[in-house]
Structure formats: C-alpha cells, structure tokens
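Predict the 3D structure for this chain.
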Amino acid sequence: MASLPEGKRGKPGLGAQPARLRMFRTTAFKLSMVYLAVFTIFAGFLILYIASNTAHLVSIQIREAVDLELKALEAQYRLGGIRRLTRVIERRSRRPGASLYLVTNSAGERIVGNVEALPASVLADGDTTMRPIPYARLGGELDDPEPHLALARVFQLSGGYTVMVGRDMGERERFISIIQRSLLLTAGMMVVLGMASWLFVSRRVMKRIDSVADTSRQIMAGDLSGRLEVTGTGDEFDRLALSLNGMLVRIERLMSGLKEVSDNIAHDLKTPLTRMRNRAETALAQSGEDAEYRDALQETIEDADQLIRTFNALLMIARVEAGSSTAEFAEVDAVELIRDVCELYEPLADDAGVGFSLNAKGTILIKANRELLSQALANLLDNAIKYCSQSEGEGEIQVSANADAGTVTISVADNGPGIPEADRERVTERFVRLEASRSKPGAGLGLSLVTAVAKLHGGRFELDDNDPGLKASLILPAKGGSVGSGPV
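Done. Predicted structure below.
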C-alpha cells in the first residue's frame, strides 16, 4: 500500500492517546480553565474590595470614638482637674473591651492608664494627629518580641499633662487575617469545584463526541443506516444530532434512489442499444435490398430517438429539481393553457377510442413557466390515454381546473386501472414502472417530471383514487399565493 506523503500524514499517536490525556486537549478543559481564572480573579477582587473598605470603615469608627473620648476627658479635666481625670480613666480602663489610656506628667512619668509605656518621642514631638503608635501593655516592655500597635491620638492638657487615647490595631489585623483566609478558602473551593465540573463536562462531552466519531466511521465504512445518539435531554447535542440524523436519512434515501436509478437506466437502455447493435449486425451480415437497409436504419433511428428522449427527460428533471431552468416565470392563464394542451391530445384520444371532456371555464391566473407546466400536463394526458385505452369498457378522461383558497388545482382523471395506494409514492420516482413486462413505450420518467415541475412552482403533485381509475392533481399557488410542498 502506498504511504502518504510526509506533509499529508496526521500527528503521530494523536488518535491513540489515552482518554485522560485527550481530555486535556478538549475545548471543555480550556473553557473551564478560562472560567476558573476569571471567577477566581473576580472573587479575589471582590473579597479584597470588601476587606479594604471594611478596614477603612473600622479605622474611621476608631478615629471617631477616640476623638469623642478625648473631648470627654478634656471636659472632665476642666471640671475637676487631674484627680477627676484620673478617677474617670481608672474607671473606664476596667471596662471590658476598654480603649487604651495613658496620662503622663510633664516629665513623661506615667500617672494613670492601662498602657505601661510609650516611646518618649511620641509624647515629646507634639503631634496630635491620629496615627499608629507602638505601646507596651501593663507588665510588658516596648522591645517585646511581639510589639503592639494602637491607632491613637496624643493630646496636651494645661499643666503639662499629656493624654493618650487609642484602640489596639490587633482587632483590625485579625479581621484582615480572617478575610485573607476566606480568600484562600474561596479560591481553593473554586479550583476544586472548577476541576470537578470540568471533569464532569469533559467526560460527558467526550462521550457524545466519541459517539459521533463511531457513527461517522460506521457511515464511512459504507453502512448508511448509522445514526447519532439522541439522549432526549433536548440540549444542543441532541438538536445537532437530530439535524444530522435527518440529513443522514436524506442521504441514505438519495443513495438508495441513485442505486435504483442506475439499475433502471442499465435495464432500460440496454434493451434498445442491444436491438440497435443486433439490427446493424444483421443488416451487414445479409445481402438485402436497399429497402431492407432503409427499414433497418429507420428502426435504428427510432431507437436512438427514444434514447435521446430519455436523456432529455433526465436532463430536464435535473434542471427543474435544481431550480436552474432558463425559462422565466410569467403570468399564465391556466384555463387557456389547459385548452391548448387538450387540443393537441384530443385527436390522439379519439384514435385510442377514449372519451375526452374539459371542465375549465373563465380565467384563472397563475405565475408559472408555461413550457414546463405544459409539458407536465402533457405527461399526465399521455399516461391517461395510454392506460385508459387498455381498460375494459369505454375509456373516459376528464380534465378540470378550479381555484379555491389561494390555490389552483389542475386535475386529470380517468377510469383506467389506476394505481394501488401503496405504489402511488413510488411511481413518482425516476424509472419506476409498475408494468413488470415494460411492454408499453416509455421510460418511467413522466411522473418524476410532473413532481419536479410542481415543486419548482411552489406546489405539490397528488395521486388519488377516482373510483374507478386514477385522479392526478397539480396543486399550484394562485397568483400572489403560496402552497406548502407536501409529500407526494
């Protein structure tokens, strides 16, 4: 077996990769990673935004509380001096969750408070703004391994006294730590859930895609009966599967029809070609008169004309079904068209001993291709005369046209043998002839052309029981109307 060129070969081992490795190449994995990154960034931004604003809000509340306490302590000092201030601070220091207090004299010595000491520079620099200040708790030192910070404000009182009021910043730091742990926990949960959802979606998607691949390989192997799996969930995969299954059904029918058409063409064309060859061979082998040669040539020409008519019919059907007819549509009087065609076929009906009646009056306007519609009606009349003349008793053909509810119906009814209901759909296919012996002239393309012409005009072709006989109807849209193309 010839090997493919290097540039045409696929990637080595791509189809043989384990399922767990192929999952990382799927679109589901890539989308999951993108969504996971987006949601993680969004969650982190949201948590940091909340933490930042909450910390800012806590700082504002601390500043307001410290300012209020300083004002209250200053008022107490003005009312009762240092003794009253000392009693108030001692009482407030013993409350649960008390603020930080410290009062020093002009020498920087501690008088009262729940703070052991502050850096000397904090008390001496005269800065009264709210700021973080290191401090030592009672019984501790400023150089402890775990220093403490307070958001505090220093205020100078008359008499050389200094007051410090603040709040420990440990609560805010603990809050920020909680937010940080929440961020890490949330990010971890998002990663775990994202990977779990990716695994679930990937397995589900891979299962459906593997099913599509298996069905495709089955079809490529020649089995056109394969169909994509439909789970019934109604999701996008089911909708895609239903559409593709409909397409596969259509392709299977076309392929079956193509096979049947090929068989019929081989059967119908083989006989006249064989006759032509045998006739020519016989004429060459025998020494006859000129008249015999002329008769042989005439019969050969007739067979050749029949072959040409068959191919012309096939070509016309193909062009009509493709909608590529060069003839343009125009406003046509259906009644006048029927009368013209009937005038051509009435002498043929008289010769066959078939009665002929026309029921079409007035004017019925349709937008149509006159030549194609005339050919379709001629095919119906030709079939009716052909089979009605073989029926028992006197044959009768009735041609009618009527307009109703935006449609125009052109009917050709006869009292011939008719067509069984089970075969009415099949006879509209190419080369289908119910006569097994195929003794009557024709190639089985007439009704196929009628069906194609009806669809080209936006209408439909129907076969019904005339009791007895057959009623063939072309149902076309009236001028400006429309008819849904239904099953034949």
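DSSP finds nine helices and 13 strands in the chain.
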